[in-house]
Design goal:
This protein has two domains: about 40 residues; about 110 residues, Four Helix Bundle (Hemerythrin (Met), subunit A) (Up-down Bundle). The longest helix has 28 residues. The protein has six helices and no strands. By secondary structure, it is mainly alpha-helical. Helices cover about 85% and strands about 0% of the residues.
Length: about 150
């Protein structure tokens, strides 16, 4: 792995570990949308393997969102989201099996609407401080880097 990819992976890990629950939901929606866009693009170019991988990733994210719904506290909202996730899953499967971009675009539109709402919630939440274990790891990595270059 090149050093830039490694640093990006570290940055992404830190972003996930320091994010509020609302921001994590935002990241999941962004991922699902990104994967569905990739699936639509791969469908247009007839890259079946890339389409399959992108659909699989999008479905994994959607299934995670669906499985983590708090049905006890969420009541009607959780039930509505559950039905919506089932519908979005069916759209992704339809686009995949029929090699049509339209169902992917509809799923993206629905997820984008949900994303917008979650972004509003996430922006109202103060960012959590960086955990001390991450700071210690970063400081240790920096001191090792200095020793190698000094």
């Amino acid at each position: 792995m090149n050093p830039y990819a490694n640093r990006l992976a570290q940055y992404e890990d830190t972003a996930v570990q320091t994010s509020s629950p609302e921001k994590l939901v935002v990241l999941l929606y962004e991922g699902a949308i990104r994967f569905l866009r990739q699936a639509a693009s791969a469908t247009q170019s007839r890259n079946i393997e890339q389409k399959r991988q992108s659909v699989d990733r999008a479905l994994a994210v959607i299934q995670h969102l669906q499985s983590t719904l708090d049905r006890d506290r969420g009541g009607v909202v959780a039930a509505d989201l559950d039905r919506l996730y089932v519908y979005i899953t069916s759209l992704a499967m339809e686009g995949s099996t029929k090699l049509q971009v339209g169902p992917f675009e509809e799923a993206i539109k629905l997820l984008s609407t949900l994303l917008s709402g979650w972004e509003g919630l996430a922006n109202k939440e103060p960012e959590r401080a960086v955990p001390t274990t991450l700071l210690a790891q970063q400081q240790q990595a920096n001191s090792q880097r200095v020793q190698f270059h000094g």
